[in-house]
Amino acid sequence: MTQKDKQEMQQKREYARIMYVHGNLNQIAIAVELNVSEQTISEWKKDGKWERLKTGKTISDQEIVAQLEELLQLLIDQGKKYLEDDDPKTNPDADRIIKTTKAIAYLKKKAGPAQMYQTGIAFITWLGKENSEIARQVAPLFQAFIRSLV
Hints:
This is DDE transposase family protein. It comes from Flavipsychrobacter stenotrophus. The structure is a single chain. By secondary structure, the chain is an all-alpha fold. The chain contains eight helices and no strands. 8% of the residues are buried. α2 crosses α3 (38-48) and α5 packs antiparallel against α6 (94-109). It has two domains: 3-58 and 112-149, no CATH class; 61-109.
């Protein structure tokens, strides 16, 4: 198997995981969608412990950003207390504040495969409520787009 084939298979595996965990698709549908055998999907599911991911609490990047923003505010408030105590020394949490700010900025910019897939599914679901005919036309195009990435 060439390096390109390995990369392609790894991408398919990642999309299969996303479809299974977040898209609520069964193994047969995923196998057909990605043009791999059902046995391959089954092996990926077992090796990657997808069932555990599916049943466990999954946390989105948006939820992580919200939690990091709360932490950042706490760190800033704590830093203010150090300054109010007339302590001219450097804020001991300055490094944590900088790292937290960078993590928030990264997560807000990041749009990985999971986010693209989740956004597409959410859009098609919304569109289906607004105009089911257009949703039926867009869904296959979205699937073709996902396949083009794999």
